[in-house]
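Protocol step 4 of 5: obtain the predicted structure for the target chain.
Materials: sequence only (see below). No template structures provided, no constraints applied. The aim of this step is simply to have a reference model before the mutagenesis design in step 5. Sequence pasted as it appears in the construct record:
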Amino acid sequence: DLNEYESTTEPLSNDKIAKEKNFCGDYQNQSIKRLKFNQCAFAGAKFNNAAVTGSRFEHCDFIECDMDQGDFEYCDFYDCNITAKAPISIAFDNSNYINCRIYDVSFYSSTFTNTFFDETEFDNVQIKHCTLEGATFQKCEFRNVDLSQLNLDFVDFKFSHFHDCTLPKSQIVYTFGLLQYLMTTKDSVSISDGAKKMTPDDYINNTLPKLLQAYTEMKDSDKMSIYFPLINILLALNHMDEVEKYLNKAIKLSAQIHDLRMIKHYCKLISLCDKFSMKHKRKLYRTICGLFQPCQMPPWQLKNYSRHMGDIKYILLIENNFPMLVFNFVTNIY
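Step 4 output (structure tokens):
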């Protein structure tokens, strides 16, 4: 309730700390980085072209703010509400949204690269022509959201649900989790190719087999661009022998052109599949390491290698690999 907060148009500055205030001033074109706000509201505040990077917002409400061209990279939002009538083009890269509600917002040409959403609700949100590579939606709820015009390459959907939503037909096999979700969901979600819509059952039973056939019949020389969706489909259908064959080819080809980014995406597919043991993942990690010779790399290539290999190690050996306690019982029962 805004009436509980003291309204102010006071100026903001880097590293400012505030609690229980309603900021409604004009902060356009300003550098106001590393803010630490708790139980605050921003009603009608103007953040156009403002640099708000590295800030932390807890229990805050953004109500009808002008945020177009704002830079909110590397920010943390905990239990926040965001709503705005005016369309927003904004940078949210590498930010975290935990238990937030985003509703009645239209995002266009915005960037959400490596943004993490956990238990966040999207209601009546438009997202068009935005970049989301590396974004994660974990336990999120989407209601009345049209994603059919989005490029969802390498976006991770974990335990999320869609209600009265539309997904892009061409992008499903390029994501983490959406294909598996569609194979079991009872949610009111549809898939669109731009001209007509289909149900998840139609997609799984009719479109997916045709895609798999088209991919497998392609010449090996043309498969480089479709190894990811091909392996994704084979994993979903539990064709593990075929997965091994194409995975090895895909990783070796990517290594030849030093495309560690794609190798990282292949590794994530494997990490999310419970058919691969930790022993198998360790072996894969050692194989990947053996494909490169860091001591012979120029500085720019070495930096790229170091960044991606760190991610690959984390994905294969740490992420999604929960500790297990194993008991061995010795008895006299034969």
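Step 4 remarks: Residues 9 and 72 are 20 Å apart (CA to CA). The two ends are 70 Å apart (CA to CA).
Proceed to step 5.
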